[in-house]
Design a protein that fits this description.
Blueprint: H1 13-26, H2 39-46, H3 50-62, E1 66-68, E2 74-76, H4 84-101, H5 106-121
Antiparallel strand pairs: 1-2
Helix pairs in contact: 1-3, 1-4, 2-3
């Protein structure tokens, strides 16, 4: 599982991790039955507190995306579904929140998004 966190972002690390794992699940990149990394390993790899990762897994379980199976760890239980628009809407809301916090105008935020798309498309 590949996630990347930005400690300089206005978005809390907890939310960055939660939203990235959610997107991996709802997009189908993490298939049903996939075992997530152990809390202590993921926390160590990302330089996070174990409690932060545990809380992320707890929220994902509450949302029905993963389930903890005790000694067998945490596994993906949700199939890709129509939650993709919701995940996208959540990401857009975060983007708007960060843009506002940084004092960007809507036009500046739109331009930044257009620039990001241009870089992504190569």
């Amino acid at each position: 599982m590949i996630v990347s966190l930005d400690a300089t972002s206005a978005v809390p690390l907890f939310e960055q991790l939660r939203s990235q794992i959610e997107l991996l699940v709802v997009s189908g990149q993490l298939a049903v039955g996939t075992q997530l990394p152990a809390i202590r390993h993921l926390a160590s790899d990302l330089s996070l507190a174990r409690g932060t990762v545990a809380k992320v897994y707890e929220v994902l379980a509450r949302d029905g995306l993963v389930a903890s199976s005790g000694r067998h760890g945490t596994i993906v239980v949700a199939q890709p579904d129509d939650r993709r628009p919701t995940a996208f809407d959540d990401a857009v809301d975060q983007l708007a929140r960060v843009a506002r916090q940084l004092g960007l105008t809507p036009q500046e935020a739109h331009q930044a998004l257009d620039d990001a798309f241009a870089r992504e498309m190569g």
